[in-house]
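Quick board copy: two proteins, each given as sequence then tokens.
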Amino acid sequence: MLTKITEADLEGKGVIGLPDTPGLSTAEMQEKFEETARAVLVPAFNRLVEELASGVGIAGASHVGAVLPDGSAGNLQQHVLDKNNPHGITADSIGAMTAQQVAEAIAGAVFDTGAADMTKAVYDTRNRRLDVYQYTDDAIAAAITAALNGEV
């Protein structure tokens, strides 16, 4: 289990508490500056790495005391990767718009800016996927031809 570095671990290590003139040789002073890192931090970090590595695959976090939001110990990484909405979050619960509300807001903005004059919803209500200008030109030409031929 991962443990915190405590004051007791740091006691007597490093330069804190030394007199202004510590009376140490250069080598001893360098050693004193490195003491906290080498005697406390590096071993604690290495223990963490070893504990994480002792897990299988992505399960290592569960071996260092990881706790899931429901209070149970478990595989935290697997929980994070779960895309099935395990907490039941809804758009409403976080103050977000639903997909329907977003669609309505976009449609309203398109209409309000006048861009709706050229939208598919206005000009292609039957989903023909036609160029409305070409369609109109062809229809007019066909009507004129029909009138000239006495078909109307």
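And the next:
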Amino acid sequence: MRINSKQELLPPLSPQPNSASDWIEWLTAPLPGRFMLPATGLLIMGLDWLCFSEEAATLGLAIPLTSLVGFIAGAIGTYHLQRKYGLDSRPIAWLKSLFAGVLVGMPLPLGGTLLGAWILTQSGVMSLKDRLWKDRLARKQQRN
């Protein structure tokens, strides 16, 4: 490669690409040490918050319906994600989907429980925080 004497070589903006496809790949890429995909962990937590955040407004009367909807949505979503992106076999994906469906269908808040923390750490969602902080610090260092 011929370098012109008047050409200034600039360092890359960040050590990691920050495009949307990289985030999607991180959410759906299976890794050997993960029990579930990060996308599956986000699905479970999101459905739990969506289904049971309004229970105070209905005075608990909608619990049977939201539990059933949460179970079905959690099971179908987990099965789809684990089969398509996690590359799990049918029996393994079915067991994970049953597990996720039961977790989402329970009318207890998962976000503040040990079980919720286990889902977040096992699926890799907790590393998302580290990744975001690393990106933020890299941008801050570039400005200085």
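Board note added afterward: The chain has one domain: 36-143.
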